[in-house]
Design brief:
By secondary structure, the protein is mainly beta. It contains no helices and eleven strands. Strand 7 and strand 8 form a beta hairpin. The model has no long low-confidence stretch (mean pLDDT 95).
Length: 126
């Protein structure tokens, strides 16, 4: 069973940076596509970024493109979300997600993913 654990959330001022990490202490994630979603109070969970198992194919939502970068280091079994130029509207709980490596094109819906972490809070103050 995949058990994802996120870390790195916190409180930051607008314009600041944070790096989120996601790992699984008991299972290698190298055979999994990985992603990040976020959910603000009263909103649906929305896609942020994804990376294929190989690390060569990445996708970012329009709202974070150019500010956030997803990456993975399979040697340390960790996926990262580097977040720069943070805005108050980025405030949300950020969730790491995984699925067995797939040829499916779709990765932007919650239903495209199989495993979820508990989430880490990111708060951006103005």
């Amino acid at each position: 069973q995949v058990q994802l654990l996120e870390s790195g959330g916190g409180l930051v001022q607008a314009g600041g940076s944070l790096r989120l990490s996601c790992t699984d202490s008991g299972r290698a994630l190298s055979n999994y596509d990985m992603g990040w979603f976020r959910q603000a109070p009263g909103n649906e969970r929305e896609f942020v970024a994804s990376v294929r198992w190989s690390g060569f194919s990445k996708d970012h939502s329009d709202s974070v493109k150019g500010r956030f970068t997803i990456s993975r280091d399979n040697a340390v079994n960790t996926v990262y979300l580097e977040m720069n130029s943070l805005k108050p509207e980025d405030t949300a709980v950020y969730y790491c997600t995984a699925r067995i490596a797939s040829l499916r094109d779709t990765m932007r819906q919650t239903t495209d993913w199989d495993y979820w972490g508990q989430g880490t809070q990111v708060t951006v103050s103005s």
